[in-house]
Amino acid sequence: MNSFANPTAPGMDDRPDQPPAARRRLALPSARAWLACAQWLVTLVTCAFLIVPVAMSIVAGLTVNYFRGVASGLTLRWLDQVWTQYHASVFLSLEVAAATLAATLMAGVPAGYALARSRTRVSRVIEELLVLPVALPGLASALALLVVYGGFSAFRMSAAFIVVGHVVFTLPFMVRPVAAVCASADLRTLEEGAASLGASFWQRFTTIVLPNAKPGIVAGALAVLTLSIGEFNLTWMLHTPDTKTLPVGLADTYASLRIEVGSAYTILFFLMTMPLLVAMQWIGVDAPGAGTRQRKTRVRNKSKDSQ
């Protein structure tokens, strides 16, 4: 009876104030949270702006009639037509990309290592000259190659001429990542230690430089492949009717055929380049510092095991 008469009994209106945790749950998001939400919103809108046209082009390549849309039905007819007419361009693009990669590996890895080790002004000038083709329009580089080597008919009509143009354009994308890795202080220390133990230059290069430069080599290799497959301006100037690559064929389909065929060609191009883009994320191109953190973690684990 007294419990009902006592206004201060538990459960009445004079309950203690809410704890600080409850008050925090009711608080509005902080300015940092609003800023993070705004950044995510801008990122998602930008991705949608870039991805939606590609998705619509892919859908167009799978529809029976582009002007009627998906309501006209889906078909693989256009893909089959593109493959029948342009499969030679697919294989030629792969061959050119593979040859370009081989040439840039043989020239770019030693060049990147040499530029990283040299600190003279001459090496800086050479590095800038290597990057110059990237700054120039592809048509200008192609015109220069035609002026110098266009008189050699057999070379001009072969796919090797396109490979030379692609090597000129993609070589900086191999040299720069390799030079950045080889310029690290840790690699120089390892080389000096190996040299003090009697290792020759070739032994140091194959057992120390190449394994440690793997992230830069992988990043450069994947960049060279994707750029070579997708290069249009330079290739359009250098190609002949017998050396038509994927980008040149894609331009022809959009210029002379119906839009469904051009979109189907885009699907074929997409299927070729996406594996390379995925490989760039998964085959060893780590985020900055990720490889260093992983190595430090392995060292700590080994030290703990030894103890």
TrEMBL record:
Entry's CDD domains? TM_PBP2 (cd06261)
What does the entry list under GO cellular component? plasma membrane
Q: Where in the cell is it found?
A: Cell inner membrane; Cell membrane
Output the InterPro entries linked to this UniProt entry.
MetI-like, MetI-like_sf
Write down the PROSITE patterns for this protein, in alphabetical order. Answer: ABC_TM1
A Pfam family this chain is assigned to? BPD_transp_1
Positions of the UniProt region annotated as Disordered: 1-20
Picking any one GO biological process from the record gives: transmembrane transport
Give the top-rank taxon of the lineage listed in the UniProt record for this protein: Bacteria
Membrane topology recorded in Swiss-Prot or TrEMBL: Multi-pass membrane protein
Which of UniProt's keywords are assigned here?
Answer: Cell inner membrane, Cell membrane, Membrane, Transmembrane, Transmembrane helix, Transport
Tell me which residues make up the ABC transmembrane type-1 domain.
90-280
Q: Transmembrane segments in this chain: where?
A: 33-66, 86-109, 129-149, 155-175, 217-238, 264-285
Similarity-based family = Belongs to the binding-protein-dependent transport system permease family.
| Protein name per UniProt | Putative spermidine/putrescine transport system permease protein
Species of origin reads: Paraburkholderia lycopersici
